[in-house]
């Protein structure tokens, strides 16, 4: 039994239990913990920089100790593991170098991510900007404090494991597993991804860059959608997709309409279709992966795929339709995957 607490239109993580009372109690505890965590952090870290000349290192180290860099460099910055000494909690702090001055609107948009409260979405807590920062002094660092940069954007968020779904897929591709085992594992992961996507769309947002590298695993092993660097608001009018910036997404996972800059939330469904295919199908080399995924984008699957995974093949075809309106909503996909789970393992789903 599942139960969810909603306070002032803000949903909190759902509670589970064998009885309605137990589920309600667990949901209330989840909401209380989230409220306390946010309140404690907000009392110590400002969301916006009010023109202070403090360095980033002082902002972080006054009440925190920076443990280590837990990600490589890249276009969207580095991620550091931080222990908040007063709260005795560990967080991740993402540091992004920005070329232009960050406006209040930009900060509000990043701050808006803090309303996303879902088991399968990386939790965002706070953000702030600084003119200088605690970074390694290296020309290879994309966020190096030695390079001239107007500002650094700091995003404090939930700490996840260092492995991504991309690592999981590569690991499974090197192992010899019964098809049934990988099928079950992939379905379990896919259900969590689509649950997160459904919630994102419910909040009128579009991720725009879903891919294995942006999907993480939480400390409890739960699948977490992260890296909302490209997130944008969805159009209120479902019939008229908006024109958007062309600097979005990763080409291999981008829906066809994303290249035309007029699209809506259905781009996330297309990307999820490719991710689900990668979860299920063993691919040996990087060259083969690029080739097979290019074919899958056009609904061309390996000959054995529909023979061994007929239900998944049908679901995938619907997600990879070229016409966005023909792709299912995340809520419909969630129901389809639940139905598939019941078909594959009826005893477990009944319990």
From TrEMBL:
InterPro entries listed in its UniProt record: CC_SR_Kinase, dsRBD_dom, Kinase-like_dom_sf, Prot_kinase_dom, Ser/Thr_kinase_AS
Keywords noted in UniProt: ATP-binding, Kinase, Nucleotide-binding, Phosphoprotein, RNA-binding, Serine/threonine-protein kinase, Transferase
Organism: Pleuronectes platessa (European plaice)
EC number: 2.7.11.1
Superkingdom in the source lineage: Eukaryota
KW Ribosomal protein (keyword) present: no
Lineage summary: Eukaryota, Metazoa, Chordata, Craniata, Vertebrata
Protein name: non-specific serine/threonine protein kinase
All copies of domain DRBM, residue ranges: 1-37
Enzyme superclass (EC): transferase
């Amino acid at each position: 039994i599942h139960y969810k607490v909603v306070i002032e239109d803000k949903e909190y993580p759902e509670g589970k239990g064998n009885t309605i009372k137990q589920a309600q109690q667990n949901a209330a505890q989840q909401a209380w913990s989230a409220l306390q965590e946010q309140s404690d952090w907000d009392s110590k870290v400002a969301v916006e920089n009010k023109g202070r000349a403090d360095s980033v290192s002082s902002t972080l180290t006054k009440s925190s100790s920076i443990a280590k860099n837990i990600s490589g460099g890249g276009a969207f910055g580095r991620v550091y593991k931080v222990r908040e000494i007063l709260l005795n909690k560990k967080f991740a702090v993402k540091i992004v170098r920005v070329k232009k001055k960050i406006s209040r609107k930009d900060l509000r948009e990043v701050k808006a991510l803090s309303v996303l409260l879902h088991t399968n979405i990386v939790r965002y807590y706070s953000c702030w900007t600084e003119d200088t920062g605690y970074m390694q002094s290296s020309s290879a660092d994309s966020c190096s404090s030695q390079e001239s940069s107007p500002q650094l954007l700091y995003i404090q968020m939930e700490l996840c494991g260092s492995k991504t779904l991309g690592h999981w897929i590569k690991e499974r591709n090197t192992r010899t597993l019964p098809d049934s085992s990988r099928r079950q594992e992939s379905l379990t992961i896919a259900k969590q991804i689509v649950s997160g996507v459904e919630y994102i769309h419910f909040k009128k947002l579009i991720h725009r860059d879903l891919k294995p590298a942006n999907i993480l695993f939480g400390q409890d092993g739960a699948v977490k959608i992260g890296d909302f660097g490209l997130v944008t608001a969805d159009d209120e009018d479902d019939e008229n997709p908006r024109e958007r910036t062309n600097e979005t997404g990763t080409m291999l996972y981008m829906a066809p309409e994303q290249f035309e800059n007029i699209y809506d939330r259905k781009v996330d469904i297309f990307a999820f279709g490719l991710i689900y295919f990668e979860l299920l199908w063993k691919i040996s080399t990087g060259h083969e992966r690029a080739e097979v995924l290019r074919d899958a984008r056009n609904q061309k699957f390996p000959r054995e795929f529909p023979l061994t995974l007929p239900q998944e093949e049908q679901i995938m075809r619907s997600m990879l339709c070229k016409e966005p309106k023909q792709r299912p909503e995340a809520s419909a996909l969630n129901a389809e995957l639940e139905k598939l789970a019941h078909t594959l393992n009826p005893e477990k789903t009944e319990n």
